[in-house]
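Hello forum,

I keep getting stuck at the same step: I have a sequence, I want structure tokens, and every attempt I make locally crashes halfway through. Rather than fight my setup again tonight, could one of you with a working pipeline run this one for me? It's a single chain of 140 residues.
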Amino acid sequence: MSKISAAYAAGLFDGEGSISISQGKKYKRPLLSLHLEIGLCRPDVLYLLQQQFGGNICTGQHREFWRWSLQSTFAHKFLLEIQPYVVVKTRAIQIALNFRETTNPSGHRYTEESHLARQNMRSALMLENKRRGPGDLPSA
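Reply #2:
Ran it on my machine without issues. Output:
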């Protein structure tokens, strides 16, 4: 099997990928986690990405469409690898990487201050994702 270069993966992610901080319910506060996706009409490249970076592949219900998704640690490692080559999603990736740095590895509950910072990063990422539109490329 071929290995995908970080530059190729970055271009693919810039064009077809998405970054989100999803919110689930656990304990008294929502549980937040980093989530990445790339969706394509052909799965070939997605299987190569899965082999190289991990994650899951699922299919759509209404037509032939595949989604490769990564969460948490796998998503963080992928973003670190492609970050130098990304053109369009640079700010979104930086927010996601900053969010990941706030993860509590010990498994203890987050302080109120830490939880608020993570919620603010989620809001900033949502705003960044809405801001992106056609022709909204960074200037050279």
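The chain has one domain: 6-131. If your local run keeps crashing, start a new thread with the error log.
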